[in-house]
Amino acid sequence: MAYSQTWEFVVNCIYQILTASCLQKISPAGTIVNPIDVPLLSFSEVAERLDAFQASGARNQTYMAMYSSIFGGITTDPSAMVIPIDDHMVHRGHGVFDTAAILDGHLYELEQHLDRFLKSAHMAKIPLPFDRSTILSVLVQTVCASKCTQGSLRYWLSVGPGDFQLSSSGCTNSALYAIVIDSPSLPVPSGCKVITSSIPVKSPQFAVMKSVNYLPNALTKVEGEENGGFTGIWLDDEGFVAEGSNMNVGFVTRNKELLMPRFDKILSGCTAKRVLALAEQLVENGGLSGISSRNVCVQEGKAAAEMMLIGSGILVKPVVQWDDQMIGSGKEGPIAQTLFNLILEDMRSGPPSVRIRVPY
Fold first, then answer.
1. Which of 27, 68, 127, 299 gets the highest tally of CB atoms within 10 A of its CB?
2. Catalytic: which of 193, 202, 210, 221?
3. Beta strand pairing status for 257-260 and 290-293?
4. How many angstroms separate the CA atoms of 290 and 284, rounded?
5. Tens of pLDDT along 75-88?
6. What are φ and ψ of residue 96, in 5° steps?
7. Which residues pair with 177 in a beta bridge?
8. Which residues in the chain land under pLDDT 50?
C-alpha cells in the first residue's frame, strides 16, 4: 500500500471513531447506543445455561425435589425447577401458598397447614386441580422422592398460566407446585430485637389469607433488619399488636399469663395454635397462670415479662428488645425456652394427628 493510501486509511479510521463518539454524545434519549449482543438460544442452550447457573452457587438453599402439575410429575434436578412466566401467580399475584416442616422423616402439621391452604384457595377464588386427598398424596410423594429427612415442604396453588391479562378467565387450569428444601440445622431460640413497622398492615381480608402477595411482609422484614432488628411488628387499624412479618407474636405477662393477639385480623398461625395447645401443660404444672387470646396494646406488650415470635420456620424465638424498650430482664425468658422445647419434642414424638411418616 502506497504512503498516500495508508494515510488516507488512517484518517478514515480516525474520522469513523470521532463520528461514533459524537453520535454517542448527541444520541436522543432512549436510544441504545451500545447494545448488548443478546444471543438467541435454543431450548438445549437454555437448559445448559440453567445448569451453569445452578452450578455457580448463586442459590443459598438446597432444593431436593419439585412437583409441578404443569409437567405432571416430580423432578430432582434444581435446574428444571421453574414455573411459566405467564402463570398469574407470577405477574398478578393470584396464588396462595403454605408450608410444613420435615423432621426425622416426618411431616409436621401437614394436615393443619393443608386445611389453611385450601381455605386460602377458596378465599382467593382458585379452583382446585385435584381433590384434597390427591393433593396430600402429591405432597407426601414429593418429599419421599426428595429423600430429605430434615427441612421444609413448600407448596403453591395458582389460577395457572394462560396469558398476561388481569382476569383469570383465560387460565384453562389451576396449577399446583411443591418444593422440598433441605435444612440440616434446626432453629436456635436466641433473643432478638424487633421494631414497630412503618409499613401499612394488610387489611383483615388479605391478612387472614396466605396469598403470595407478600411485598408488605418482605418490606416489614427488611425494615426490621435495616434498623438492627430481626423483623418488624405490625399494629392493626386500632393500634393493637397484630403480627410479625411472617410470624405470630406472643407475650408472658407479669402475672405469668400467656397472651396472644386474636386471629380475626391476622393469619391464623398453625404453629401458634399448637403452642397454645401445648402450653396447657404449663398451666397444669403452675408454670403459667392462664392462656388468653385478646387485643394487646403496645404499652402492655412492651411491659410484658417475656415476648416471643412464633412460626414454623423459627418455632419460638424470644424477643429481648422492642424498639428502645428492653423486654423483661432483657434476656431470653424461661417460658419461651420451654415452649420451644415443647414444640421441638412434639415435632419429634407428637401424636399422629400432627405427624405424618414419609414412606421413603
1. 68
2. 210
3. parallel
4. 9
5. 999 999 999 999 99
6. -130, 165
7. 68, 156
8. 1-27
State the cell numbers at 92.
398478578
What cell was used for 258?
A: 400467656
CB 308 within 8 A of CB 339: yes
The answer to whether 202 is a known catalytic residue is no
Q: What is the pTM of this model?
A: 0.88
Q: Helix or strand or coil: residue 68?
A: strand
Query: Cα angle at 208 between 206 and 214, to 5 degrees?
Result: 55
Q: Pick from 267, 220, 223, 238: which is nearest to 99 by CA?
A: 267
* Separation of alpha carbons 23 and 338, rounded Å: 71
Q: Which residues have CB under 8 Å from 52's CB, separation 6+?
A: none
Separation between Cα atoms, residue 108 and residue 345, nearest integer Å: 11
Q: Report the helix count and the strand count for the chain, using DSSP H and E.
A: 11, 16
DSSP 17-57: HHHHHHHHHHPPTT--SS--------HHHHHHHHHHHHHTT
CB 106 within 8 A of CB 153: no
Burial 291-325 (b: 16+ CB within 10 A, else e): bebeebebeebbebbbbbbbbbebbbbbbbbbeee
Phi, psi of 177 (to 5 degrees): -130, 150
Contact between 315 and 343 (Cβ < 8 Å): yes
pLDDT single digits (tens) 322-340: 999 999 999 999 999 999 9
- What distance lies between CA 326 and its chain's CA centroid? 28
Residue 352 in grid coordinates: 399422629
